[in-house]
Amino acid sequence: MAALAGSTAAWAGSTTKHEVYIDTTNRVFAGNFGAAHNSTDWLQFIDIMIQASASGEWGRILVADKNGVWVSCMFTDPSLISAAKALTSDSYIQASYDTNGMCTVLEVRTTSRHETKQH
Q1: 3, part of any domain
Q2: Four-CA torsion 31, 32, 35, 36, nearest 10 degrees
Q3: Domain of life here (predicted)?
């Protein structure tokens, strides 16, 4: 046990940088809040908004990549709203949207392997 105390594994503390990726042909985008925030290009971002009112809830995702390409999609589906509410400031998201600009899939991952925001 004492021999292991000073050793470190090569994979310990590893992180993955997922900057904003947009594929307008297949209508999908992905990215990690930390990587977008820490990017040096000053263009990419991930913005997610949920609005609640007496008539219900809806949300919107707006993303831009390092080339200045941006897309957005809206959602009213309760399962997508629930997924969006599970996001943290260091989450990774992947989403698909239809030709009407409605989000159809929202995947949320929160893990220590994703890059976190540097202040």
Answers
A1: no
A2: 60
A3: Bacteria
How many structural domains compose the chain? 1
Q: How far apart are CA 71 and CA 10, in angstroms?
A: 37
**pLDDT 10s digit of each residue in the chain, 119 long?**
444 444 444 445 666 668 899 999 999 999 998 888 888 898 999 999 999 999 999 999 999 999 999 999 999 999 999 999 999 888 999 999 999 999 999 999 886 555 555 66
- Residue 83: which H helix or E strand, with range? helix 78-85
Task: Dihedral sign for Cα 101, 103, 107, 112, please.
Answer: positive
Cα distances (angstroms) measured from residue 59 to each of 43, 95, 107: 22, 13, 15
Between the CA of residue 101 and those of 1, 10, 62, what are the distances in Å? 56, 43, 11
116 part of a folded domain: no
Structural domain for 38, as ranges: 16-109
Asked if residue 2 is part of any domain, the answer here is no
Instruction: Give CA torsion, residues 88, 98, 65, 13, to 10 deg.
Output: 40
Evaluate whether residue 55 is within a structural domain. yes
